[in-house]
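ingest -> validate -> predict -> emit
validate: passed (alphabet ok, no gaps, 348 aa)
predict: started
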Amino acid sequence: MKKIRLLIVEDSPTVCVYLGLIFAEYDDIEIVAVAKNGREGINFTIDFRPDIVLMDLHMPEVDGFAATHEIMSRCPTPIIIITATGDPQDKFLSIKALECGAVGLLEKPAGLNHGNSKKQVTHLINHIRALSDVKTVQFRRKYKTHQKKDLEREIKRTHSIIAIATSTGGPQALAKILTNLDDTFPLPILLVQHIAPDFANGFAEWLQSVTKLKVIVAKGGERIYSGKVYLCTNDSHIGITSNERIFLSSSPAINGFRPSANYLFESVGRALGDKSLALILTGMGNDGIKGLTSLKQAGGYVVAQDESSSVVFGMPKAAIDANLADDIFELNEIAQWLHQMQNERNDA
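emit:
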């Protein structure tokens, strides 16, 4: 059995011992080295070439944010950021690390006697297993993207809303496609990003820092407007009513997710039918398939991110394999398309 080679970058000896005890229980994970600061983390990544790096945020000499940036520049390797969630600034910096190329963001596991410890450990192990080969996913291309003429054709179609769902790799993708948009963008955007609830407010703050669109923490009953991105940060599903008002729901998680892409897409399709445009971007799993099916049946249009530009080709692949994607575009093409949509509508 091939083992997952793991590098831990963590300055706390206590946390290192605890992580060592955790991983000793799993035969498929091997700790190849432990770095006590970001500088060592960079050097050990180059020397040991691990399958995945587990990165703390606050460390002496070089912190986790700077180390992530350096590693992704010099020796691209899947990096999972683990950090405590008490400090709002930590949450913001953690999202910035995702923008730099880290593929995951998780709460640092609590102690052995903590009530939430088992759930956190399971979540961590699942992420390590899923993301350890992410670099091989990035460079495979099995699905043909559509040509520029398809982009131009779809700009002419009349939409009333864009619904976006993403998971692992989402912050990088969102930064790419939203950076060049501003408050003149002709449509409202509803967004589901899978992220731990404690990081959701930090994610909203970070997203506002990378786009001139107005980022709104959604409130139930408020009307949606063009040029704004609406997302939910209070562990609720987000959807829309037929009179184009936000609807938040505390109904149970769908396949483990709340907010859920399924809930968003199904709600948008039901409310706006053929005026709906859905983007399904990089992410693990298949959240969104049931909702996209409903949206398509209502006449909506679906665009999936292609394999070559996805950090994890899970959610888009599931949509493509289910024949739900009307178009498949590389991330830069999606960014170009949305920017051109803004210019075309403004010139009209």
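The first strand starts at residue 4 and ends at 9.
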